[in-house]
Structure formats: C-alpha cells, structure tokens
Amino acid sequence: MPTNQASVGEDVPAPGAVGAAPVVAQLERVVARAPDAAALVEDGTVTDYRNLWRDVGEIARTLVRDGVRPGEPVGVTVRRSATGIGSLLAVLRAGAAYVPLDPADPPERLRDIVRTCGLRRILLAAPLLPAVTAGLPVRTIEPAPAPAAAPGPGPGADVALAEPLPEVSGSRLAYIIHTSGSAGPAKGVRVGHRALATAATALTEAWRITPGDRVLSFAALTWDTSGEEIYPCLIGGATLVIDRRATEGTVAGLLAAVAANGVTVVDLPTSFWYEVVEFLRLTGRSLPPSLRLVVIGGEEVVAGPVRTWCELVPDRVRLVNTYGQTETVLVTHQAELGGAVGRELPGGVPVPIGRPLPHVRQVLVPAAPGSRIAELYVGGPSLSFGYQARPAATAQRFGPGPGAGGERMFRTGDLVMIGPDEQLGYVGRVDRQLKVRGHRVEPEAVERALLGHPALVAAAVHGTGSAETGRQLAAAVVPRADMTVTGAELASWLRDRLPGYLVPTRWSVQAALPLLPNGKVDHATLAAAGHEGTYGTPETGGDPFVAEVAAIFSRVLDRAHGPDDDFFDAGGDSLLAARLISRLYRRYDIELTFVDLFEWRTPRGLADVLRQGGRTPDGEPAGGATEPAGG
C-alpha cells in the first residue's frame, strides 16, 4: 500500500490546525437541543431531528453489526431523498467513510470505483445494477427499517440510543467523493472528518444559518456541492427541503418549490442561475419573499447577468459567488455580489471570487515579477488527504506551498487576478483542465477514452463556447485509413463508458490533426477552426412552428439542430435541458419537465406537445414526477 494512504481503520495525520468537532457530534447536540424541530422535508413529509437521528442510528447499527470497522469505506447508492441523506449520515455515525455511487453512471465506472476504494459493502439507498458487483467480493445491505415510533421524550431530553456506536475521530476518513472530471480510472478525493467539520462550520457562520432557515437540496448527492447544502444546514439546526419541482428543469418549478416550502437559502450552479436571471428579466416575476440568500458557484460568472440580477432583485437578498475544489472541501473563497456591489461591477475584468474564509490559508505565486496575475495555492484544516490509491497524483498536487514555511497545500492550477481591494478574480487554468457546465473536465482523459475506439488513431478534445452561454466539449478525431466513423457513433460509444458530461457535443473527422513545431497538437488552431455537428440538417418540411422550436434547440445546444435530431444524442444534459425547458416556457408559456423532454426528444416531437398546450397525444397533461437528473 502506498505510504501516503491509510489502511482501513488507521488514523491519518490531519492536515492543518485542529478544526471543529465532527459533524455527527455537532448533530447530536442539535438533536438534544431541539429534537422536535424539522430536520428534513421531502415533498411535504416532515422528519424531525429526533426521528432523523433514530433512523440514522438504526442504519448505523446495521452496518456495525455487519462488521463495518472505523474508517472503512462503505459504498452508498444514492438519489436525492431523505433515505439517501440519512444513509450518508448513518455511515458517518458508524465511524466509517461513505463513497456515494450514482446508479445511473456506467457500470464499468462504478466497478472501477468499487475496486479502487476497496469496497466490501454497499448500502443500497437506491437500486443498483447487479452487473456492478458481479464477481467482486462486495456485500450489499438494505437500510434497516426504522422501529415503530414510540412516544418521544420532551424537547431537550436525552434522545441517544441505548446501544452505543463507535466514537468518531476527527482524524479518520469521512468520505471519498469522485471529482466530476474523472474519466477512465476514477479519481477519488479522501476527505477527513475534521476537514468536513471545519468547512461546514465555516459556511454555517459565513451564510448565517440559523434554526429558522430552510435550505433547498438541489445538488446531486454524488457531488461535493451537496455537502454545502446538507452539513451547514443540519449543524445549524435548520431544515433541509427536498422538493421534486425544484429539480425538474424549470425555473418556474424551482420558484414554486421555494415559495411552497418557505425556502430561505438556495445554492445553484452558475449555469442554472443564468436561467433564473433570464426568467426574472423576461417574465417580470419576483423571487419568493422567503428567499434571503442565493449562493452560486461551480464555474466562472460574468458581470452582465450579475448587474441584471441586482437591478431586478431587492438588496435584502444576498448573492454570494463561491469558489472551492473537492480537494479543499466545500468552499474556500466567497464574494458578496448583491445590491450596489453587483450593480457597479465593471466590464472587462473578472468577477470576484472573493477572499478566503477564515479557516483557509492561501498563497499567491505571481505569473511574472510584479504581475497581478498569480497561481493560487490553498491550505488549512479543511484540506483533504489526497487521492484514493493515486500516490503520484497526490504528490503532484499536494505538498509544501511556495513561501508557506513547509505547510501542506493544494496546488489549484487556477490563475487569479488580484484586485485593488485584494479580492481575487478567476482568470483561467495553468493546464488544460476546464469547467463544462459546473463539471471539472480533463480533456486528456476524454482523449484517452476515445483512443480506445477501434476505428481511431488520433483524437483531440478542447472546450468551446463561453462561460455565459455554457461551455461544451468539442472533439477532432482521425480514423484509420480503411474505416469511417461519425460523431454520432462516437458519442453513442462514449456514453457507455463515460458520464454524459464527458461526451463531446461537437465533432469533426479529419485526415490529420494540426501540429505545432514541437510535434504537439495545435489546440488553438482546432478551436479557431470550429466543428460541424453530425446530427442532421435543419429541414423542417415547411412547418414554421417546427422550425422555430428547432431554432430554440439550436441556440441552447450552440450548434445546428434538425427537427428530427435527438436532443440527448446531440449532447444535451441536465443543465442544457433546464435551459431548453426554460426558453420554451418563456416563448410559449407552457411548462414542461424533464419527463416530457425524455419522451419527446426532438423538435418535431416536442412541437406536437406544445401545439396541444403542453399535453401529450393521449390527452394527459405533459410532465409528471421524475427522478431529478444527476440523482
């Protein structure tokens, strides 16, 4: 075993200073203080802290009886639900470390995570394909049903369960979560209890979370962003709200969920927040009065939408732009962008990502002597342990920071501009890594996957589009001399091997890739040349309505899209689907959901639904309940 990885149950030296008490200890205090307060609301069903803690304890006990040891990684198949959140908490309470698994991911990717993390048990909070564990020494466990509720003790009484559970050590592993840019061998980030508690406590204070708050659960539970919603909310004694309307893909649905549940705090991907801004601008609608804080992050924000937001939204609603990595745990920097600050943002300079939170240490290495552009290093007690079973990658990104006196830090690879007020603004990357609609993507990893196709001899992948319109992946490929291939075929092949956000949406098939004098691929030339889609032509059969719907598809996808082309085959994902649904709503005043788009995937098909006022051919209302995209 690599020397920088701990074996199961072994304490790992915690990076940085001692942080807050583990989240399970903080939660236990909240339960004792306010057992009858609402902890979770799922589609109208309320679970108070007493019953949440009881259910968490029962699942944790099931794990301990099954032999789970302190610090052991335990897989948890999750979708956004009270059961999913309770299962993650139960693994922590059992003293183990959870590894969230999205059942919708390709089976081979899930099998790789199981192997790399050495999983011996998977807690089934959502169904999992048998193929994922076939032939592997993995035991699957169903969450234990909660006992019949007995008359509860009064507020403030001892609600601890009789059968003790292991004490949680701050120096042990809390979870392994996989960076969204992983491809091929999954890249898991090892986060300790102390790091999680430090980061969560800092956000509870920075966002002023109190028992009176209601925080929306929006992010998939396999994303580290979900931790920004769950842990500051629960250790602050607030209520976490799960409402399917919020994640069905429409801004109208999001606002309806916020209004119906009295939500006070939402944390949105920047791409989806752009849709909220456009919706407010074009409809004249207002935000629900309960909302006091909107957090955005995941990718670069541009000044124009911020200024528009601040003209439309009352100053009492805080707008906070956040920055952080999975490796540095939750959020490390934030900037206030609401009110007068946002209205006065200048154009042509990066929008601030702000200053480090109190627990964060930053080091800035100038790109050149005297330059205001610098590479950012981050340290402090919220630093993760590194990558699971990848000692070389850990050594490359974690180590003594320049001028930090030997302190262990994370090299972000991000270039930032230091503003006159010492706030930082994101400028770009020192390497080729990029963000595509909130996901961190390494183009080289996608290239490696493409070169596994038997028809290809070369492949180059790069980003296209802008931060505001949504970045996408573009691929140029060179087939073998005796073979032909199309972008549509390659996209379909990749979807069986990679998560959807890693599948390029633009393709070009070439005889050879352009090269620089040193023999490396000339990515700048490829990006400037552009790429042609391979998904059809814009022939509409003379139907102007279908042509208009196809034009909306094209604008959302940022490429020509024919009337019979499949939205998802052309690279559509959950964020682009939300954008498409939002634009169709603004144009036709008909509210669709992800279900409609999954069923009617082409402009021509969806045009028929829109003609009928949002009703399907059998006369039933379009839409319906669906599992939110991304879990």
Key traits:
631 residues; alpha/beta; Rossmann fold; Non-ribosomal Peptide Synthetase Peptidyl Carrier Protein, Chain A; 3 domains; ten-stranded mixed β-sheet; disordered N terminus; disordered C terminus
Short description:
This protein is of the alpha/beta class and 631 residues long. It has 3 domains: 23-149 and 167-418, Rossmann fold (3-Layer(aba) Sandwich), CATH 3.40.50.12780; 436-529, GMP Synthetase, Chain A, domain 3 (2-Layer Sandwich), CATH 3.30.300.30; 544-611, ACP-like (Non-ribosomal Peptide Synthetase Peptidyl Carrier Protein, Chain A), CATH 1.10.1200.
Spatial shape: globular
CATH third-level topology of the largest domain: Rossmann fold
Sheet having the most strands:
10 strands, mixed
User: Count of DSSP helices?
Assistant: 18
The protein's oligomeric status is: single chain
Average pLDDT number: 82
Distance linking N and C termini? 33 Å
Percentage of residues in helical conformation: 25-40%
CATH-assigned homologous superfamily of the largest domain: ANL, N-terminal domain
Notes on the structure:
The structure is a single chain. The protein has 631 residues and is an alpha/beta fold. The chain has three domains: 23-149 and 167-418, Rossmann fold (3-Layer(aba) Sandwich), CATH 3.40.50.12780; 436-529, GMP Synthetase, Chain A, domain 3 (2-Layer Sandwich), CATH 3.30.300.30; 544-611, Non-ribosomal Peptide Synthetase Peptidyl Carrier Protein, Chain A (Orthogonal Bundle), CATH 1.10.1200. Helix content is 30%, strand content 21%. The chain contains 18 helices and 26 strands. Helix 5 packs across helix 6 and helix 8 packs parallel to helix 16. It starts with 22 loop residues before the first helix and ends in a 20-residue tail after the last helix.
